[in-house]
Amino acid sequence: MGKRIVVIEGEDAAPEAMRPTLELLDHLDLGLEWLRPEVTDFEACRRAIDGSDASFFGATSGRSAGVIFYLRWGKQTFANVRPIRWFPGCASPLRDPAGIDFVIVRENLEDLYVCAEGDLEELRSSGLRSSTAGRELADLAPGAFAVKVITEAASERVVRFSFELARQRRAAGHRGKVTCSSKYNMLPKSDGLFLKVARRVAADYPEIDFESFIVDDFARRVVATPQDLDVVVLPNLYGDILSDAAAGVIGGLGLAPSGCYGEDYAYFESAHGTAPDIAGKNVINPTATILSAVLMLEHLGFADAAAGLRDAVEAVYADGAALTPDQGGSASTTSFCDAVAARI
């Protein structure tokens, strides 16, 4: 049966990566139906999303923000999965990137992303104190505060998701390990809860190795020993920042796909932004968008087509003749996609 997919092209240079990627997917002849609601009509977008099997989202600089908020919080897509995998031809800055193949799972709904901020004076009657400053937070005014929220329920579901993913990867020949990281030494109540939940869930998966690191130590390991990682689970803010840093290890955000999964819905988007500086130049690297489409095809049950598309991308990189400028080549976005299509 065909699948109904909402397409939001995004802004600036994002549509230049999205449109030829859709042509590649059409080339696969899978019976995919593209739904294209107007992003300024939120109700139309909501209805389309609710009636679809998945969404494919380009990057936004603001115009599509309402849609991405609904895809994330409205559909409760709590696990942001960001694969970090090097393959020959990718312009990694490391001397030896061979063997880098891990996945960052970022909790996608809470932490500082509950977006609860205010002026310190608003805390005047709260009695909240700074354990480091030794006085009430309101006495530090003028200034601002932000609330970090880590809940037990949200932590457990994203950690369990990560262990299930590690179990799947182990069956496919990967190590079968989960690494948890947060700043639990400085934030024992919030980040410490995330680690506590992870340790508890780990007991249900005795066949999966488990380790934990303070987040600054983990950041070093992403650069120094990325081949040691398999599945990494992080609270929202750290996951957002460190997945971008990890993409830099393999060759940049132009290579970084992403999928956001909930209990009954998922959407897919490249991890990079809209790249307004190169909009209209037909040079944006579409690899992240294409590999996000690979994740979407896997999610929709088209495993063979997903593998074929991934193999075609890797063949283009191995050949090296049609790479975009960010990877050291001179090819346009469309010529890169044409090269991929020729190898499918």
Give the strand content. Answer: 15-25%
Query: Structural class, from helix and strand content?
Result: alpha/beta
Give the CATH topology of the largest domain: Isopropylmalate Dehydrogenase
The overall pLDDT, averaged over residues, is: 97
Largest sheet: 10 strands, mixed
Radius of gyration: 21 Å
Distance between the termini: 22 Å
Helix content: 25-40%
Q: How would you describe this structure in keywords?
A:
alpha/beta; single chain; ten-stranded mixed beta sheet; 10 helices; Isopropylmalate Dehydrogenase; 344 residues; Cobalt-precorrin-4 Transmethylase, domain 1; two-stranded antiparallel sheet
Tell me what the structure shows.
The structure is a single chain. This protein is an alpha/beta fold and 344 residues long. The protein folds into 3 domains: 1-87 and 256-344, Isopropylmalate Dehydrogenase; 92-110 and 149-250, Cobalt-precorrin-4 Transmethylase, domain 1; 112-147, no CATH class. It is 38% helix and 17% strand. It is built from 10 helices and 14 strands. It has helices spanning 14-27, 42-50, 65-74, 152-171, 191-202, 215-224, 236-250, 287-300, 303-319, 333-343, and strands at residues 4-8, 33-35, 54-57, 79-85, 101-107, 117-119, 129-130, 135-136, 144-146, 177-182, 209-214, 231-234, 259-261, 266-269. The protein has a 10-stranded mixed β-sheet, with helices on both faces. A two-stranded antiparallel ribbon has the order 6-9. It has a two-stranded antiparallel ribbon with strand order 7-8. Helix 1 (14-27) links the parallel strand 1 (4-8) and strand 2 (33-35). Helix 1 crosses helix 8 (287-300). The longest helix is centred in the middle third of the chain and has 20 residues, at 152-171. The radius of gyration is 21 Å and the shape is globular. The model has no long low-confidence stretch (mean pLDDT 97).
